[in-house]
Design goal:
Layout lengths: L7 E15 L2 E7 L9 H18 L1 E5 L7 H11 L2 H15 L7 E10 L2 E10 L1 E10 L5 E11 L9 E7 L7 E7 L8 H7 L2 E3 L3 H17 L5 H16 L4 E3 H8 L2 H13 L6 E3 L12 E4 L5 E4 L10 E5 L9 E5 L14
Antiparallel strand pairs: 1-2, 1-4, 3-9, 3-10, 4-5, 5-8, 6-7, 8-9, 11-12, 13-14, 15-16
């Protein structure tokens, strides 16, 4: 994943996406502009920070979709070659009006020249309007002090305003269309609005949810195993990982997992190691079907050619299989494994591992 803090913006076009009603029929219209928005350095920096923060929290890789006939990918490629941001932004505004559902909200389409990790590209974002109240202290006749309240019906880019959908697209030679990028849909949590990703942008996720879920399990396991956590802490974390993936939640969130199940003093190391291994460090739709058989049991391999297999919920301080440091170990690297309160059902010769 790129370093989203390197994002910079140059020329910025904004087009208003409005909802009109005529003879009882509602439809979206694009109110097109002809020149870039005038932004001083401070405002441009504020806008850039909002976009980079949204991407950092939720962005996943996207590539062209062969199942959608959208002009957007080709138009972006053409702009990167000919530098005609006005034409690109107006085309995208028209395509958004054609693509989005009537239950979508009004707002602004933002299209900007961007550079991310040193590579030129195009930023495309849909930002929805919000309502707010502005309070201002006033002094009335006679010296009485009061607060005047003014309603702002179409606030955008406020500190609490959520940037709902945002993508950064860049040229590539890795697919025939010549475009790839990163997309975040803050409004939909770990999911993506189909009309925005597919019909509007003509893209799809580079990795399906089942691939991302398997990567989350494998690479987070590596990060835990290579960390300086104690053996008992590694077992607790690994058990929690399996339980987290098997839960009823529709999403996986690596950041939430680390905050909840990794001791605070180790969180940054685990976070860095997981990110370096390609773990998506944001919420995404979960699909465990490729790894479901691997979630039912954990195998604890010990240094004496002994291994134990048990369900994740039975391993750890609250389960029947408990791992604790051996108090007689001088270097702290020996552990006692205790299995409490289970019947001995059978003893057989096992196949060699």
């Amino acid at each position: 994943m790129p370093n989203y803090s390197t994002l910079s913006l140059a020329s910025v076009f904004m087009h208003q996406i409005a909802l009109h009603e005529h003879n009882g029929e509602k439809k979206f219209n694009a109110l097109l502009t002809d020149i870039p928005v005038e932004l001083d350095a401070r405002d441009l920096g504020f806008l850039t920070d909002r976009f980079s923060d949204a991407l950092e929290k939720r962005a996943l890789n996207v590539v062209p979709s062969e199942h959608v006939d959208s002009p957007s990918p080709g138009a972006v490629v053409s702009h990167l070659r000919t530098a005609d941001l006005k034409t690109l932004s107006q085309l995208l505004a028209g395509r958004l009006v054609e693509s989005q559902r009537l239950n979508a909200k009004t707002g602004l389409l933002v299209v900007a020249d961007a550079v991310l990790d040193g590579t030129p590209g195009v930023l495309i974002a849909k930002v929805e309007h919000q309502e707010a109240m502005q309070a201002e202290a006033t002094t009335l006749e006679g010296g009485l002090r009061s607060i005047s309240i003014k309603r702002i019906p179409d606030l955008v880019f406020g500190e609490q305003t959520r940037i709902y959908k945002i993508a950064v697209l860049q040229a590539t030679d890795k697919n025939p269309v010549g475009i790839q990028g990163f997309l975040a849909d803050i409004q939909n949590g770990g999911g993506f609005a189909n009309y925005f990703l597919g019909e509007f942008l003509g893209l799809k996720l580079a990795d399906e949810p089942e691939v991302l879920t398997e990567r989350f399990l494998d690479k987070m396991t590596e990060a835990i195993h290579q960390s300086s956590l104690g053996a008992d802490e590694k077992i607790e974390a690994q058990a929690a990982l399996a339980v987290d993936i098997k839960s009823n939640s529709s999403f996986v969130d690596a950041e939430a997992f680390i905050r909840t199940h990794i001791p605070p003093s180790h969180q940054q190391d685990i976070r860095s190691a997981a990110s370096a291994r390609g773990v998506p460090m944001m919420s995404f739709t979960k699909d465990p079907k490729r790894i479901s058989a691997r979630l039912n049991n954990l195998r604890i391999n010990l240094g004496t050619e002994i291994s134990l297999v048990a369900p994740p919920h039975q391993i750890g301080s609250q389960g029947q299989v408990r791992v604790e440091r051996d108090p007689s170990s001088s270097n702290g690297e020996l552990y006692d494994v205790t299995i409490k309160g289970v019947p001995l059902e059978s003893v057989t010769n096992s196949r060699p591992r």
